Predict the structure.
Amino acid sequence: WSKQYEFSETDFSNALDTINLWVDSTAAGRSNLPPDKIPWAALRELIASTCYGGRVDNDFDLRSLESLLARLFTPESYGLGYSLLLSAEGATAQPSLP
């Protein structure tokens, strides 16, 4: 990030509400939803533009936010071996615990 942003608990709560609303709507009453049926692109766009993006006023930071959301909100994130971390070379990296 190029500067510190004042993201709040309200921003986080709005993001969770957005996710819940879209997933519940897509599930249409089913108790679960396969990862390939989740509206990932819509969730990424809504979270980037309405939940957090309204506070981000720098193009580089907006791309950073979009990159983070693309890494988190994807069907692959449901895989057991999926790593949220990338090494400096761009390969997935496993966190080391102390």
User: Anything to note?
Assistant: The helical segments are 9-27, 40-52, 59-72. The two ends are 27 Å apart (CA to CA).
